[in-house]
Amino acid sequence: MAVHYPSFKQLQYLVALVRTGHFGQAAELCFVTQSTMSASIAELESLLGVQLVERINKRNIIIKAEAKRLAADAEQLLALADRWLGSADPTQRPIAALKVGLIPTIAPFLLPRLLPAVHRQTSPLRLENSEKTSNELVQAVTSGALDVGILALPFDTETLQVMPLFDDRFYVALPRGHSLAPATSLSAADLLGHKLLLLEKSHCLSGHTLQVCQLSTDNEVAGSSLFTLMQLVANHQGITLVPQLAVAALSALDSGLVFIEFREPGRHREVALVVRTSWANQAGVMQLAGLIRELISGPEADQGPR
């Protein structure tokens, strides 16, 4: 009697579904439609003879304990397949190795959390990291110099596949003792009449700041990094907006800094992963995206000042 085994794609789909807990997000990670993802999981359930997912309604599902156990085994099998393919062809770079580029307003704040988490992964994932501006990053991923880019939207990603990771809201950085410091939250109207410091125009954060504040470009360009801006703010040279991702690290720099939630409606900026649509290493991309989402949404995620 012939034995039918699950395909590697079905294993990848199962791992993605368990990681995200959502058919739509899992489909994005695997670059397939939601209907394809759902049908493949249903086929896997039929093949294994077990229920992996309890479908409550179109939006809500429950991942069964058996699915979580099988997904852990599937990760090991996929990692073994990666190593096997790499040993079969010495010229082929292992699937788990990714050349990743990050923009300067993300790299120093995400990598200290991401790299230890990568090291703890049971499935091998090796990252080769570099820091580039958004324009440089899109060009490098498009040309093949980088495999993956992590940047902030909105930004023109040209023909690249975009995978949203998390929303990154803004906080207003002020010197302690500033007239706005006692506030629990601030709006764009509250900032009128105050000197707003920006990064150089090569940083997309400047454009995002102006857009969310609905301001013109006649503000002072004062630094090439957020760390420089913090020194200026601490010394009462002006105020600025910083992403929530950076607040914990920046607040540790100087006790003279205060960070107030910026309450403007709509999305401030969205951190996303970009990859070529032809890039074959879906397993590595899926693992990286899932890990970042877990870091940001997990119980230890920094939610900014209270």
From TrEMBL:
<keyword id="KW-0238">DNA-binding</keyword>
<comment type="similarity">
    <text>Belongs to the LysR transcriptional regulatory family.</text>
</comment>
<dbReference type="InterPro" id="IPR005119">
    <property type="entry name" value="LysR_subst-bd"/>
</dbReference>
<keyword id="KW-0010">Activator</keyword>
<dbReference type="Pfam" id="PF00126">
    <property type="entry name" value="HTH_1"/>
</dbReference>
<dbReference type="GO" id="GO:0003700">
    <property type="term" value="F:DNA-binding transcription factor activity"/>
</dbReference>
<feature type="domain" description="HTH lysR-type">
    <location>
        <begin position="6"/>
        <end position="59"/>
    </location>
</feature>
<dbReference type="InterPro" id="IPR036390">
    <property type="entry name" value="WH_DNA-bd_sf"/>
</dbReference>
<protein>
    <submittedName>
        <fullName>Transcriptional regulator, LysR family</fullName>
    </submittedName>
</protein>
<dbReference type="GO" id="GO:0032993">
    <property type="term" value="C:protein-DNA complex"/>
</dbReference>
<keyword id="KW-0804">Transcription</keyword>
<dbReference type="Pfam" id="PF03466">
    <property type="entry name" value="LysR_substrate"/>
</dbReference>
<dbReference type="InterPro" id="IPR000847">
    <property type="entry name" value="LysR_HTH_N"/>
</dbReference>
<dbReference type="InterPro" id="IPR036388">
    <property type="entry name" value="WH-like_DNA-bd_sf"/>
</dbReference>
<keyword id="KW-0805">Transcription regulation</keyword>
<dbReference type="GO" id="GO:0003677">
    <property type="term" value="F:DNA binding"/>
</dbReference>
